[in-house]
Amino acid sequence: MKIAHFDFNEGKTFIIAELSANHNQDFNLAKKAVKLAYEAGADAIKLQTYTADSLTIDVKEERFKAGHLWSSEYLYDLYERAHMPMSWHEPLKAYADELGIILFSSAFDISGADLLESLNVPAYKIASFEITDIPLIQHVAAKRKPILISTGIANEEDILRAIEACRSVGNNQIALLKCTSSYPAPPESMNLSTIPDMAQKFGVTVGLSDHTLGLEACIAGVALGAKIIEKHFTPDPSVPSADQAFSLSPDELTALVKSIRSVEKMIGYPDYKGGDKKYARSLFAIRDIAEGEKFTAENTRSIRPGEGLHPRHLNTLLHTHAITCIKRGTPLDKTMVSVKLI
Questions:
Q1: Which among 44, 89, 232, 339 could bridge 247 via Cys, Cβ 3.0 to 4.6 Å?
Q2: What is 9-267's CATH topology?
């Protein structure tokens, strides 16, 4: 799978800086975020394409209250203040292209997906709470571009239905993101062991959309096989926004990218070839040994460096004798021994 110039076959983790509501409805702040994400080394910056009306209706009843950090607000009011104006998408996409960072977005309705397609975004995201919206998933997947699906509220049946929705319109470029839909998510809720299990069970690319505080979950996710990391990011931590409380600062995003790139090198590949045995133990004469003298624990021992016989020969050696004079400090070899060693 490829997203723009990023090739998943090359073994790197696709790191997404999620802008979400951290533009605070200030275009210059949104543009700054694109640049800072690029400078931090993120592979992509992701937007969210919705209006309050595309997500809910303006009803002031208890069932329409938001949860988590926003429990004092109604859903419509929260989305009204958090959404990104549609008119910003085109100039932000152009600016990202100019810098060389990938820009794409979460589509929350048909019109939003079609706007993104008109801008030729290279991929689409389906948010956790939209995973059950099969018509939306089919519409987005039919554009035949990579589709990333967060699984925060999903059970196994929901995930299978979402995958089938993509495949039913001929799209097999599917990635699932392990996610915990809590804001912020407590560490004990993460269950990161789901990442390798999800890859094995569903046979698709798997990543992590992380809402915890800090970097640990992302780093552990990569170690467990996540090929995508998505993390909320704010260009200015001093500017209040709906997502500020669980978003990385520019310096933290830079640290995350560096940590992930380092972990990628550490993961490497299965390797049993071993290393330089120069300083491993081997059999040496630790006293002068005369020709015909028996090898004993007093004149022969396994010590460093590794220039002599393998220590596995010691017990055999102690039942035989030297066939030449051996000076103290000499590494033993097969030509000095009265029996054939294999």
A1: 232
A2: TIM Barrel (3.20.20)
**pLDDT one-digit tens code per residue, 139-196:** 999 999 999 999 999 999 999 999 999 999 999 999 999 999 999 999 999 999 999 9
What φ, ψ does residue 155 adopt, rounded to 5°?
Answer: -95, 180
CB 205 within 8 A of CB 176: yes
Q: Dig out the tokens for 211 from the structure.
A: 């809402």
The highest-level CATH class for domain 274-342 is: alpha beta
208's tokens: 């992590």
Specify the pLDDT at position 72: 85
Q: Could you tell me the residue ranges of all domains in the chain?
A: 9-267, 274-342
Which residues in the chain come in under a pLDDT of 70?
Answer: none
User: Residue 124's beta-bridge partner residues?
Assistant: 105, 147
Q: How many alpha carbons lie under 13 Å from residue 105 in its C-beta half-sphere?
A: 29
Instruction: Give yes or no for a contact between 36 and 257, defined as CB atoms under 8 angstroms apart.
Output: no
